[in-house]
Amino acid sequence: MSNGQPINIAIVEDHQATLEGLAAVLSREADFRIIGTADNSEDGLAMVEQLMPRVVVLDLHLPGKYAPKDMIDEFVRVTDLRVIIYSAESRLAFIQGVMSMGVSAYLLKSERLSILADVIRKVARGEKGIVSEALTFDHRKLTPSEQEVVQMLGRGMKYQDIADARNTSISTVRKQCEVLLLKLNLTTREQLIAWAVQNGFGSAEF
Questions:
Q1: How far lies 191's CA from each of 137, 140, 184, 204, in Å?
Q2: CATH of 7-131, one of 3.40.50.2000, 3.30.70.120, 1.10.10.10, 3.40.50.2300
Q3: pLDDT tens across 187-198, in order?
Q4: What is the pLDDT along the chain (206 residues), one digit of tens a residue?
Q5: Would you kindly state where each structural domain of the chain is located, as residue ranges?
Q6: Cα atoms in the Cβ-side hemisphere of radius 13 Å centred on 185
Q7: How far is Cα 128 from Cα 120, in angstroms, rounded to an integer?
């Protein structure tokens, strides 16, 4: 960090080999200090509340009493803690939901550990909104209105149903879908619906 002190890091990951690998690799960085690890959500939360690391590397799906959304809520409430979600979950609806909750970064587990190290430094400096470059689409490109339309398409709603639910005209819904096709580089309504389903929209409870 800028004051010459190491960045204190905690890791919460339930796969032992991944946990040990992360701890071993990150601890080799001269400006990092691994101050704690845990393999479930309750122990992880208790650890960060007690040890007060600067950054936590947090798996999205962990054993314990917390569902992912509730778990993230608890971690982002910890004072001065920067949360990096480190997960294999690549569905964009999940990522959008997670990024809206106040985490600093979302990285896929397929990323190189050198990328994770760089992101740890960035979030420790206060940067936010970092998403793995391995993702094929920038989650920030869809407006809230477009996200709502995509979610309805993912639930199997027809254009007229969407128009009725959103108190708008069917022509407005069609225009929104035309814009979505351009943004997502798709050509047909069927492709748009398939994209919505494949990326978890309409069924992304977490």
A1: 16, 21, 10, 19
A2: 3.40.50.2300
A3: 898 999 998 888
A4: 546 789 999 999 999 999 999 999 999 999 999 999 999 999 999 999 999 999 999 999 899 888 898 999 999 999 999 999 999 888 877 887 888 899 999 999 989 999 999 999 999 999 999 998 767 555 557 888 888 899 899 889 999 999 999 999 998 999 999 988 888 888 898 999 998 888 888 765 55
A5: 7-131, 141-198
A6: 3
A7: 11
**78 in Cβ contact with 49 (< 8 Å):** yes
- Helix, strand, or coil here: 117? helix
CATH number of 141-198: 1.10.10.10
H/E/C letters for each residue in 3-18? CCCCEEEEEECCCHHH
CA distances, 105 to each of 77, 84, 95 (Å): 16, 5, 10
Question: Distance (Å, rounded) from C-alpha 26 to C-alpha 20?
Answer: 10
Q: Which of 170, 185, 172 is nearest to 145 (CA)?
A: 172
DSSP codes of every residue in 145-178: HHHHHHHHHHTT--HHHHHHHTTS-HHHHHHHHH
- Backbone angle region of 200, left / alpha / beta, with phi > 0 → left and psi within -120 to 50 → alpha: left
Q: State the greatest distance between any 2 C-alpha atoms of the chain, in Å, as a whole number.
A: 60
